[in-house]
Design brief:
Blueprint (H helix, E strand, L loop, with lengths): L5 H14 L3 E4 L11 E5 L2 E7 L8 H12 L5 E3 L2 H12 L1
Parallel strand pairs: 3-4
Antiparallel strand pairs: 1-2, 2-3
């Protein structure tokens, strides 16, 4: 499996979401460090996505934010490869 940087994977996600008519907004929340990198907006949904380089794992602070969102009924997707972006997209089509 090729090795891509987090930036490469993030660009790939943005491009693929745009191709299917959605947006993948950069999520910056002042005073709330650790929020997921992108909010994917598509078909009436907003889906938080944390992007990592291959094999990368969220930090403790990021995991805490993911848990906070999980408690609100929101799933955070952690994606560390272009292949996982494709898998994520297949899941959105269902």
């Amino acid at each position: 499996m090729p090795h891509y940087s987090e930036k490469d994977i993030e660009s790939y996600l943005r491009e693929k979401i745009k191709e299917i008519g959605g947006k993948a907004y950069k999520w910056v929340s002042p005073g709330n460090a650790g929020v997921p990198d992108r909010l994917v907006c598509l078909r009436g949904k907003m889906i938080p996505v944390e992007l990592k380089a291959l094999g990368g794992r969220p930090t403790e602070l990021q995991l805490k934010k993911h848990q906070e969102l999980n408690k609100l009924g929101i799933t955070v997707y952690v994606i560390d490869s272009k292949e996982k972006v494709d898998e994520f997209l297949r899941g959105l089509k269902q």
